[in-house]
């Protein structure tokens, strides 16, 4: 799904964990005290960065995803334990071979200006997703979903009105797939499949999602104020079909500063109500203050991503393998990060992803083993690279990274580690999150710290990331055998055979090493004692404040 903003990746680049390591400034103009917020039913937290896009069809990062998940709602949603449940659709039916899915919208589902939500709004949004003139970098997911004619439309071989999605009437949406896709209900939760109003998009044109007045959603919260690069506030929407269950009146990020220590200090003094404890130092401070630290799995995978395009430093596979074998994932996870929930990994698919049958995970079914910190193997590959290239030393290179406080600390570790492994000079380019994303997509980097969060509950959400057609394949790597295996997995209905195809493809990814997996991400946070039901989703957006509530506790009301 999503690139995260580093640890800030839920993308060193979209990390839901990293996306929230920033601070509100005590005394920020108009900021309420915690006591006042409890009385008003409001939550302050810090998003850390400006959302790169509040256009559901265009977003591809966890910061934008978090805001959009509160402002809009898809056909389906997730409950607190990751089960797919009805969202804007009250019911879903599917034919026997799982190629025709029919969704019945709720009669009371509305847009935030009071107009009824219609099946035609989904048709418009999904056609816009695959429209080659619009060029969404997430258009590939319509092919992943198997929506009839999606690939031909993206390739400009058919008009967008031939997409396999129709409104049978105002409240009934029918989706026809070109092949069985058993996890389509999970895909229907994802944000690029949110509805959009054609009249609103056409009215604002290029200003859609940029002009705050153009952001009219169908979810539980509506955009109330947005000062670009400074603050963002959403408020409870009375038009939401389940509005009675929403207890919080407003959610606000009163500033977008990236200093994690200042952020924690601000929490301590009551300036914000929630923050991630994003480093061992802050965790130690939190424990010293006798704060209750809560941990959660984020569902993401972090990795080193190489630019393998011709002429770039890491176009050479053997040099990439020297890095792959030489790094110490365990040292990085346990000594440098020190955050609960993180695990060292070798494969890109996390260990919780389901396998071919109930109770069996993909990772147990398709183990991928290697030695961590295998320095001798790394040096053998480095020598081989030097022999074949005729060089006397590995070329110097630059790591592209985010400019947040924690991100700078983490990239310093990788700078020193990779310099030791390759015996060369390693530089760092630290830039704002949005800039890092753009430079990565443009192929304007040597190596970057990146990662991916799942869009839906199937290994494909990670595996098709490295295909030629996927705009998020920032490495520029292309492997015909890998592509063929992903296509076979997409068209295979037998679950065990799908796992076998994925396992074979993942071994190719490991051997070629356009990316080097580092860790499966987790997170830890502290929250105001009387703020309850803040969710963290393995699938979908996080943090999720939709069902949060302030506990009516006189003692806690007196805090701060």
Query: What level of helicity do the residues show?
Result: 25-40%
Low-confidence segments = 4-29, 554-560
What summary fits the major beta sheet?
A: 7 strands, mixed
Individual helix count = 20
Rg: 23 Å
Q: Give the termini distance in whole angstroms.
A: 38 Å
Structural class: alpha+beta
| Strand residues, percent | 15-25%
* Shape estimate: globular
Count of extended strands: 22
Could you characterize what this model shows?
This protein is α+β, with helices and mostly antiparallel strands and 560 residues long. The chain is built from 20 helices and 22 strands. Strand 17, helix 15 and strand 18 form a beta-alpha-beta unit.
How does the SSE layout of this entry go?
Elements: E1 5-6, E2 8-11, E3 14-15, H1 16-19, H2 34-40, E4 42-44, H3 62-71, E5 76-78, E6 84-86, E7 89-94, E8 100-105, H4 119-130, H5 140-144, H6 150-154, E9 165-169, E10 172-176, H7 184-187, H8 198-204, E11 221-227, E12 231-236, E13 250-253, H9 260-268, E14 274-276, H10 280-288, E15 294-306, H11 317-326, H12 329-337, E16 343-344, H13 362-365, H14 375-389, E17 397-402, H15 405-422, E18 426-431, H16 433-441, E19 447-452, H17 460-463, H18 480-491, H19 495-512, E20 515-527, E21 531-532, E22 549-550, H20 554-557
Parallel strand pairs: 4-13, 17-18, 17-19
Antiparallel strand pairs: 1-2, 2-3, 5-6, 7-8, 8-10, 9-10, 11-12, 12-13, 14-20, 15-19, 15-20, 16-20, 21-22
